[in-house]
Amino acid sequence: MALPTRNRCRRHAAAISASYKRMSIARQFLGTYLRLFAGVFALSMFVAFSSRPVNAQENGPGPLEPPPEHKITRVTGGIALPEAPPSLPPAEIIKSFTQREDSFAAARPQYAYRRTIRIQEFGLDGKPSGEYLATSDAIRSADGKIYERSVTAPNSTLEALQLAPDDVQALLRMPAYPVTTSQLSKYNVTYLNTEKVDEVDCYIFQVSPKTLDRRNPLFDGVLWVDQKYLEVVKTYGKWVTDLGEYHPATLPFTTFETYRENVDGKYWLPDYSRADGTVKLKDRNVPIRVTIKWTNFKPFLPAAAPATPADTTTPAKP
After folding, report:
1. Which pLDDT score is estimated for 193?
2. Which of 241, 238, 234, 260 minimizes the C-alpha distance to 251?
């Protein structure tokens, strides 16, 4: 009986040995397979990364678009068909918002403000490479005239754009309220559609000049009108003459997007305006941007009445 038992033990040991051999072979095969897979994977990743497009610095025109401080909406091309007619006749809306533009234009000189002008050049990587910055406060003199007083001296690190003080002032001469009642007859004003601007439901109107001349630039663009109060809260457009787009000779900015702020619950005054352009050099084009901000709106204090001189005349004797 002992022999069969030993035979069975030998056969069992042989079976275990064969099993370990099979496991060893399997582990060797698995190791070889994994090394092969790792090599193929590394090769595929190398090919994938080596075939990626070059980065923005190598082929991008720049600048990379930064997150806007306001919702930026571009309206280009032809006039879009409205989804539905407005709740009021367009002529009534136009009459109402142009009258309000009159009141806003009259109220604006009554408010002090701080204005910051920033002009930026962008490199091939889309990052600012140079900047002009100037901040000023609006003050009113005793005779009622409004002046600009510098808060800090203008500072410039611009390289592509040669900027003169008059160039900056030229940016500020564009009318803030282009379509008033006195100007309405010069324009075609067409209802486009509706859209939200900073959570305000608005009507959109296309504005285009009826005729053009060389001496009086006119607005060509789009207005966003608050549906509830029928007041313009945003404009986007350019000024044109019969020669084309109007802009300062040394500056490339033509089309401005301007948002307004409700001041004292009564007046919509411009508080943010932005435009993009390009400075052309011999070897490259430099993207450039201007941003103008108005803050700290406060009514000017009433001008002091001039003192009445004392009467020094001697009364006549009866």
Report:
1. 93
2. 238
